[in-house]
Write a structure and sequence with these properties.
Elements lengths: L2 H13 L2 H8 L3 H15 L4 E4 L2 E4 L1 H26 L6 E7 L1 H18 L3 E7 L13 E4 L8 E16 H7 L12 E5 L10 E2 L2 E2 L4 E6 L2 H9 L5 E4 L9 E4 L5 E10 L6 H18 L1
Parallel strand pairs: 3-4, 3-5, 7-10
Antiparallel strand pairs: 1-2, 5-13, 6-11, 6-12, 6-13, 8-9
Length: 290
């Protein structure tokens, strides 16, 4: 099985469309189609059923996926190990973090990297989706869940907390909610259920069943903006709220803690440019504790 063809097959399998796979791999759709046809020809098997809803793997496709995934894992491991021998303070480092963490911490870390190591180029993906470090979707990730994968190494960065907030204009119009009423008579701002299922079930330990969800968002920064705009009550990081003077904290004694971890694959621990970015991130979080 040719690896160039196999990686296109994997992208089609995971995304379900030829166009989506081509976009992911940054090739044109015709090339992706030719590569898939070449793979099917070499294996003498149909790997997908072409349906109006997308590409559905056949039984042969499921078997091919298992083999192609092993090829991918071996290729990724080789690349990580080669990177681990790289002592140059130049090149690309991919970092994944949530929007709020990226805005408040990672931008400053990138600034420090560019001051000391201008030949390092940081590619930052700001999303609450967890990047797969084994597949090299990122070299470094900041997560709020400690990984249990033995191939990953982690460092605890900080313990933060979220609190309840509303805008001054919202409270002037609706008043403050009463504890124990499950936000009866109040509007709430939350993540989309498809992004973080169950997020809106409770806010800082208070059930939300009697509240009205005014807006669901897929962005932490947009949630802060929506609460600041007076759309409703939301859970916000307490360390970011002071930057928004129109916000008022509700029930200040209530909060929910969360931890932040810096995670990388063990094979990259000795890569100079990855270590430089990791050290800058750690320094920013350490400075925040002072």
């Amino acid at each position: 099985m040719d690896w160039d063809n196999a990686r296109i097959f994997l992208a089609i399998y995971r995304i379900g469309t030829l166009r989506g796979a081509a976009a992911l791999l940054q090739i044109d759709q015709a090339t992706a189609g030719r590569r898939l046809a070449a793979l099917e020809s070499s294996l003498d098997a149909r790997l997908f059923l072409r349906t109006p809803g997308g590409y559905v793997p056949t039984a042969a496709g499921e078997l091919a996926f298992a083999a192609a995934e092993r090829m991918e894992q071996a290729a990724d491991q080789l690349q990580r190990q080669m990177q681990g021998l790289d002592h140059r303070l130049s090149g690309v480092v991919r970092v994944a973090a949530s929007e709020t963490v990226a805005s408040y911490f990672i931008m400053e870390a990138i600034r420090r990297v560019h001051v000391h190591h201008p030949d390092i180029r940081v590619v930052l993906s700001a999303s609450i989706q967890i990047s797969n470090l084994t597949r090299r979707e990122a070299d470094l990730a900041i997560r709020n869940v400690k990984p249990d994968n033995p191939d990953l190494i982690q460092r605890h960065l900080a313990r933060k907390e979220v609190g309840l907030y509303a805008s001054r204009s919202y409270l002037a119009q609706h008043g403050e909610p009463k504890p124990g009423t499950a936000f009866a008579g109040h509007a709430l701002v939350t993540y989309q259920q498809s992004v973080l299922p169950g997020w809106s079930d409770t806010f800082c330990g208070e059930p939300t069943g009697n509240g009205h969800i005014a807006v669901e968002l897929n962005s932490g920064m947009m949630i802060i903006d929506a609460v600041a705009a007076g759309l409703g009550i939301g859970e916000l990081p307490t360390h970011m709220a002071p930057a928004y003077p129109e916000l008022v904290r509700i029930w200040p004694t209530r909060s929910e803690p969360y931890d932040l971890w810096l995670v990388m694959h063990g094979d990259l621990n000795r890569t100079a440019r990855v270590r430089a970015v990791a050290d800058a991130i750690v320094d920013v979080f350490e400075a925040d504790k002072v």
